[in-house]
Amino acid sequence: MAYTRKDVSTxxxxxxxxxxxxxxxLKRRGEYDEFVRTHIEYYVSDGEDGLRTAHMAPSFLPxxxxxxxxxxxxxxxxxxxxxxxxxxxxxxxxxxxxxxxEDLLGGTGRRSDQRVMTGPFARGHGDWTIRESVTxxxxxxxxxxxxxxxxxxxTRQDLDWALDDPVYDVSPWNSTSAKGFRNKLEGWGSGxxxxxxxxxxxxxRWVGGHMVGGAxxxxxxxxxxxxFVDLCWSRWQRxxxxxxxxxxxxxxxxxxxxxxxxxxxxxxxxxxxDVTPDQLEDHSQIYRYA
Length: 290
What we know:
Elements: E1 3-5, H1 13-29, H2 31-42, H3 60-78, H4 156-163, H5 181-186, H6 199-207, H7 221-240, E2 287-289
Parallel strand pairs: 1-2
Helix pairs in contact: 1-3, 3-7
């Protein structure tokens, strides 16, 4: 039977406690840091050589769907009742709204160094030491809303701009794709700075701290954010009809194309797993969203 992922704002006190407890146990066992290392390894940009699977590529959505499932399976080995909640950032839009409560993720970082001082993932509590990162410091950092250069979370209209595109992705299958649902949701825009960050990318920037860059998994809000991104993929499929919303590209780019061997086609294996994007399009037999 499929299990349910709930809106973080609807979690009971007990559900929040069990979710946090399972995350802390994975951290204690050393399993959580494996997820951080995996994301750092597969955070390959357009400007780097080799295959891109996690970001700036059509497989952004199925890659993170499988990544979420792996984390959820690990959590459920600790507590079978736990599922990953989602954070609807078009609705819970402030630094005091869900999920930033004292008993869930805690709040923003202090102004001097962005160090998170509240909640169960604050370094001062001793249970959430940062061991895998691309920056110095062993404490979790955040800068909710970017105090020095304020930034707003995406709106419902921003999200609808992505959801309204009926095509999954388009050539050149990277961060410069001007059309296609995938890149509009992932959020790589033209230009530099605030105007170029849309939807998914803007949320990472709004949270700030560790959420900016490949080590973003160090902040547990990563999972709540990507659960909502995953839900948006499901909503897009329903909006346009499953038969017309298949993953693209269906076939690998042709020889001579700059994206040949750089992106995963529909029936090709999606590293680091032995699974294809095609196999990850339908999650209805595994989980559903409340």
